[in-house]
Amino acid sequence: MRFPRPLVKVIATSLVGLGLAAVAHAQTAWDMPTPYPANNFHTENIQQFAKEVDEATGGKLKITVHANGSLFKANEIKRAVQSGQAQIGELIISGLANEDALYALDTVPFLATGYADSKKLWQASKAAVEARLAKNGLKILYSVAWPPQGLYSMTELKSIGDLKGMKIRSYSPTVARMIELMGGQPVTVQAADLTQALSTGVVSANLTSSATGYDTKSWENLSHYYDIQAWLPKNIVFVSKKAFDALDQPSRDALLKAAAAAEERGWKVSEEKTAWYIDQLKANKMKVQPAPEALQAELLKVGEKMTAEWVEKAGPDGQAILDAYRKLK
Fold first, then answer.
1. Is 1 part of any domain?
2. Dmax over Cα atoms in the chain, in whole Å?
3. What Rg value do the Cα atoms of the chain yield, rounded?
4. Does 240 fall in a domain?
5. What are the UniProt keywords, alphabetically (predicted)?
6. pLDDT digits over 125-183, tens only?
7. Which of these, 234, 256, 239, lies nearest to 80 by C-alpha position?
8. Which of 104, 115, 146, 205 could cross-link to 209 by cystine, CB 3.0-4.6 Å?
9. 87: which DSSP letter?
10. pLDDT digits (tens, 9 = 90+) for 225-283
C-alpha cells in the first residue's frame, strides 16, 4: 500500500519529532551550587568532574556548576539538594556542625595538621559521616581537603592576649568556639562575602587557608599570616539519593568513576598548591611566618580543650572514631 506523499512527509516529521523527544527525555540536567570562586582549585576540580561525567555518559548527564554562591549561599546548599531545588552540591563538612558534632571533627584544632593525617582522619570517620547524610537522603560522591588553616591579622601577634576582643571571621561552629577560647569575637562570614567583610572592617582577622587568603586578596586588608597549620577542613561533593537512583546504571557508574578521579586529583592539587598559595601571599607583601612560640603553645592548649569538648559532644561514636584514627597514625 502506498501513502500519498503529503502523508508520508507528516509521518516522517512525526517520527523525527518522536526521536528528538526521546533524546531529550534521555538527557538529565543537574544544577550544582558551589560556594567558592570559579578560579578556586575546588571549583576547577568540580568543573573537570562535570566535564568528565558529560563525556563518559555521552551527554546523557549534564551538570551545570554555579560557582561562588551564585545559585545558593554556602549555608543553603545542603537544604537545596535535600529539597530537590538542586540535585548535586558542594559544602564544607564542618559547616554542618550545628546539626551533629561529628561533622566538626576535621576542624578540631591540631588533631590532624598535615595531608597524611587528614586522609587517615577521613578514613576513620567517613562511614559515620556517610550514614548521617544518608538519613537526609544524601550520598557523598567525593571529598577533598583544603590546605592547612592559618591565622591572618592586620597586626603583629605575640600571644593569645593580642587577640582579645578582636573580630575574627568564622565559617563554622567549631571555628567560632576556637575564636572564643582565644579571646576573640567570632563573626560568621561566608567565603563569597569575605573580601567585603575585610574591606569594611566587619572582621580584622581570619582563620582560614592560604587558598582562601589568595582568593580574597587578603593582603589588601591584612598584613600578617601565621602558618599555624591548625587543621585541614574537607569539602564534600554530594548528591540527592533520589536523583542518583533515577539515573540508569551506566550513568551511575560513570558518575562514581568520575568522582573517584576527582577525589584523587583534588587531594593532589590541594597539597601541591599549598606552597604556591603561600608564595603568592609573600609576593603580595604579607608577612608570612610561623606562630611565635608563646602563641603556638597557647593555641595547642586550646586544641587540647576542644578535643575533649568534641568527644563529650560526639559521645561513644566520636570516641570510637578518635580511637580508630589514633591507631592509624
1. no
2. 96
3. 23
4. yes
5. Signal
6. 999 999 999 999 999 999 999 999 999 999 999 999 999 999 999 999 999 999 999 99
7. 239
8. 146
9. S
10. 999 999 999 999 999 999 999 999 999 999 999 999 999 999 999 999 999 999 999 99
